[in-house]
Amino acid sequence: MLNKKVKYLTRLKKIPELSSAEKQVLSQVTEKFAFRTNSYYQQLINWNDPKDPIRRIIIPSLQELDMWGELDASHEHLYTKVPGLEHKYEYTALLLINDVCGGYCRFCFRKRLFTEGNDEVARDISEGLAYIRQHPKINNVLLTGGDPLVMSTRKLENIIRQVREIDHVRIIRIGSKMPAFNPYRILDDPELVRMLQRYSQDEKKIYLIAHFNHPRELTPVAIQALNMVQKAGVITINQTPLLKGVNDDPIVLAELFNRLSYIGVPPYYVFQCRPTAGNKMFAVPIEEGLEIFEQARMHCSGLAKRARFVMSHATGKVEIMGMSDELIYFRYHRAADPETKARFMAFRRDPEAYWLDDYIELVDEYDFENPFYSLFFENSRGA
Fold this sequence. Notes:
By secondary structure, the protein is α/β, with parallel strands linked by helices. The chain is built from 13 helices and 14 strands. It has helices at 20-30, 39-42, 53-58, 126-133, 153-164, 178-181, 184-187, 190-199, 220-231, 250-262, 286-297, 356-360, 371-380; strands at residues 8-9, 37-38, 80-82, 85-89, 92-96, 140-144, 171-175, 206-210, 235-241, 267-271, 308-313, 316-323, 327-335, 344-348. Strand 9, helix 10 (250-262) and strand 10 (267-271) form a beta-alpha-beta unit.
């Protein structure tokens, strides 16, 4: 059970630190995008600082109404095989098992799931499980949504048990921001920890993909919760998008990397902020982001600098590799189409580019004779 002291808040009027005028103005945002926070996470905000990064993560802003992007920026719908299951990469399947989180990040790339009428999350995962059984190459299953750890331990165990019964699934991943949003979900539920220990086996591990965006989220209780799941045999790693006003400072990002490495939660991915509707206020241009990322890594040991800087594009997970004076270099870290696996790409630099498509649009007509570009457009736009 959740700690009774942690209360979930879904209405701005329950946030006493906001003035009446702020609540009235921000209601325009919550009418469009869902709002949810909790009393634990609210205590991390420095309300005297209007630019506080934790506030920026969780409290609505009028800037979210700026016209930019689309709700399904990575075209996840193209890879939905049965209700609640996405299969984009050969060895990994994704199960959307929940449409609630401990808080709704204002930069969420799946905010469409929290809108009325969305039916992408499957309450019954039987079709998804059948699909996984029929595809023996799938050795990783990611449980996500929404946040799986918001679910009761009984419901989550029922899902994990059924996935674990599929012999060719070697890794179960749980994508969760609960260690940051509400670590008491773990601390106050010993049965959750025991359940994770049962199913994280010697050669079939459970991975907890944590979601810490800023060093201030790494509180003593959050670290304690992570220690508990580590002692249960769960592998812990972290991923975060690069977010303007939150972690787009090399010193802040380096501190996050280092502190994560100290507690055994190595950095995994740093994502380029997706061009999702409402997210313009968080977006950092790609080339500026690469410079921030590399400068941060200069302040880290090898164990703290293992993250890759990537974007989750419609055609695959594209790693942002480096730059010269004139060119920027990318590589498909993971590709939806086998033809583009590990493909290396070079484009003329554009300091105003936010997404791979921005570079593609600058390519001369002559360059479209290159088979790569026709393949790219078939995957990203023609599907």
